[in-house]
Amino acid sequence: MFSSSVVGAFVFSEFWRDSSQAKSGIAALRESGVNAIVTESDSYEHFMVDLAHQAGLRFYAGVACFSDHASDFSWIEEHHGSWPILETGEPRSQMEWYIGISPTDRRRQQYVVAEIARIARTYAIDGLFLDFVRWPLHWEIELRPGRSRPLDSSFDAATLAAFEEATGSLPRGLDTVSARATWIQENRFRSWVDFKCKIITDFVRMARNALKDERPDAELGIYVVPDVNGLAEPLTGQRVRDLEPLVDWVAPMLYQNILLQPPSWIGTALADLIQAAGGKTLPVVQADSNRDRLVAADWGPSMSDADWSATLSEVAHCSNVAGLIVFPGTALMGARGESLKSMLKVWG
């Protein structure tokens, strides 16, 4: 089923710091069955795109829409109104490498749309993936088993004003942000979720137009948070049934190892997503936990080869998927690449 579909390897910008190493890396990924380089960076190199194309691979860029972690939170430091405000009235604090940005920030929306147009105009990309196109949530950590329900956001002044304009004024006497948030959650929760979803859907529509205006044949993908206990849509504003018509790929981030779930969780999460996204479903699966959480992010416990094989099997057993993206792609440069190659022969 993967003969004409995407088999992507997600790589970080370090992958192309050295052109000769990038060339050998692309060759190794191609040998494992990969047919697309998927990445995300503040800047790209023409030679990297060219190397991918020369090897017969597609090249998908990416944009971090409502997160500025790559620039050490410079955006929210300079634009204080974009800092997410929790339902408690407190600013959202940093969790690992993540804070998030309020999606109602018009300046951020315009900046990201302009970036999409610039990338599409400058580089011969085959497509682009929208990342962090959601309301603030470090879902991999906050939705882990046993944790309390994540705090909702953002209840910043601009968002509350936009919500009132969309749904009607809030009662007088709600003198604090937490009082307004509590009243909304108790009295207009469905309207609040619909509002959040509309903000995200409208932005994705703008992003699509920016990409297609510059490069009509380029494909648009969106990374989405998999559902956990019915929390994904209310917290992130990602309503897949509304987003699906606007994009070419719906890519659920099935990082079961970071989420502290067994590989069997992937099949359940995929089945729910496929109902809304159908054949556009392009799962992103975790291939390794190769970072020391004391110096970087917590990617969960060590992943065994058996866990990797089980992860691949969960995807293979789902019908109507468009392929897969492996995260991180560099984990395929070895035995795990051979496992993918063997599985692709069976699936094909």
Structural class: alpha/beta
* Radius of gyration, whole Å: 20 Å
- In the CATH hierarchy, what is the architecture at level 2? Alpha-Beta Barrel
Whole-number tally of structural domains: 1
Along the chain, the helix and strand elements come as EHEHEHHEHHHHEHHEHEHEH
Report the span from N to C terminus.
5 Å
CATH superfamily descriptor: Glycosidases
- Measured by DSSP, the beta-strand proportion falls in 5-15%
Summary keywords:
alpha/beta, single chain, TIM Barrel, 348 residues
Characterization of this structure:
By secondary structure, the protein is an alpha/beta fold. It has a single domain (6-75, 97-144, 191-347), classed as TIM Barrel (Alpha-Beta Barrel). It has 13 helices and 8 strands. The protein has helices spanning 19-31, 46-54, 74-78, 106-122, 139-142, 157-167, 177-187, 189-214, 232-236, 240-243, 264-277, 305-316, 335-347, and strands spanning 6-11, 36-39, 58-64, 127-131, 219-224, 249-254, 284-286, 323-327. Strands 1-2-3-4-5-6-7-8 form an 8-stranded parallel β-barrel, surrounded by 5 helices. Helix 12 (305-316) links the parallel strand 7 and strand 8. Helix 1 (19-31) runs parallel beside helix 2. The longest helix is centred in the middle third of the chain and has 26 residues, at 189-214. It starts with 5 loop residues before the first strand and ends with a helix. The relative contact order is 0.14.
